[in-house]
Design goal:
Number of helices: 3
Shape: globular
Strand order of the largest sheet: 1-2-8-3-6
Largest sheet: 5 strands, antiparallel
Length: 179
């Protein structure tokens, strides 16, 4: 909701300029003492989403690290901080994670390149480059590269990932895989 109130000027009056609170007070971003200092490390879900987005945008920081391995999923721990870690993963066509959860960790999954499919109790969801998924502790899913091209994803876990319990596939997912 805005604090700006605009009154209509009479038809015969000269055009009036409207002033917003920002114009009256000045640019708050220019008043450094009013800004909160930037956190060195994220602490909220929104900040972790922002961290993932900023890493995604900085291709030079991760693109040269990506490797594709046809025998196993490739992964690289990209960054750690107090209570969190960031992983870079690559996916060749057909590779998947298996049905799993992340124990006590919450997370943010960001697709950097290509396309991945997330299978969860809600059904399959196609995630293209730039897509993000946020999940809570205990959230079970499977991520698969169902395309004919490689894919790269970024995973932020908080707290850092200490377990990844595997689950049996649901009958519907098993049927979809066997076809």
């Amino acid at each position: 909701m805005s604090n700006l109130t605009v009154a209509a000027a009479p038809a015969h009056a000269a055009p009036a300029t409207t002033e917003s609170d920002l114009q009256i007070a000045g640019d708050i971003l220019a008043v450094q003492h009013l800004l909160q200092p930037a956190r060195e490390h994220p602490a909220t879900v929104a900040e972790f989403v922002g961290l993932a987005r900023s890493i995604a945008e900085d291709r030079a920081s991760w693109q040269h690290l990506v490797r594709y391995d046809a025998t196993t999923r490739w992964y690289h721990r990209l960054r750690t901080g107090p209570g969190y870690e960031v992983w870079l993963l690559s996916w060749v066509p057909g590779q998947g994670s298996g049905q799993h959860d992340h124990g006590a960790s919450s997370g943010v999954l960001t697709v950097l390149e290509g396309e991945l499919t997330e299978h969860s109790p809600r059904g399959p969801l196609t995630l293209g480059a730039g897509s993000q998924r946020v999940f809570a502790p205990g959230y079970a899913h499977e991520v698969v590269n169902d395309t004919l091209d490689g894919a790269v994803s970024l995973h932020v876990y908080f707290p850092g990932l200490t377990e990844m319990p595997m689950h049996n596939c649901s009958p519907a997912r098993t049927e979809a895989v066997s076809v």
